Amino acid sequence: MGTSVEQALEQLKSTGVRMTPQRHAILSFLMHSMTHPTADEIYKSLSPSFPSMSVATIYNNLRLFVEAGLIKELTYGDDSSRFDADMSEHYHAICRTCGTIVDFDYPPLTDVEDAASKETGFKVEGHRMEIYGQCANCATRHRAN
Q: Minimal CA–CA distance to 8: which of 38, 40, 36, 32?
């Protein structure tokens, strides 16, 4: 992962954002999480340590981190947004049964971006690719039933 928690905090401080213990905890949780948590999952994990922290505090800080370019918001249909601190070019495999999201690397699809640009005239700024199916746990459970 490219950015450390300390580098991210320095980046925020340089833009005038005051660093609170809650902000530090939310950012640290995200940067060490491989599960692409929802705001609610972050809240449930951190609330024992920060009993006065509200869900609104989590959402407000997530927005701040997204705007600062420290995390990505992943939106999939009507489900709650999930958040990813891995800003590298990577893709997601998503289980339709339990919602698990797993990162995987593949050479960037620059040919697709080039084709889209030529065909549409768009100045392409990026893309998102998702693979859907059942994770190994759900597939095993499904076969067992």
A: 32
Which residue stretches of the chain have pLDDT < 50?
Answer: 1
3-class secondary structure, 74: strand
**pTM of the entire predicted model:** 0.77
Number of residues written out for the chain: 145
Write the single-letter amino acid at 21: P
H helices within 1-144, ranges in order?
A: 5-14, 21-32, 39-46, 55-67, 110-120, 136-144
Question: pLDDT tens for residues 70-84?
Answer: 899 998 766 679 999
Q: How far is CA 79 from the centre of its chain?
A: 14
| Torsion of Cα atoms, 6 then 68 then 117 then 91, to 10° | 50
98-121 burial: b if 16+ Cβ within 10 Å, else e = ebbbeeeeeeeeeeeeeeeeeeee
Quick one: CA torsion of 22, 24, 130, 119, rounded to 10 degrees? 110
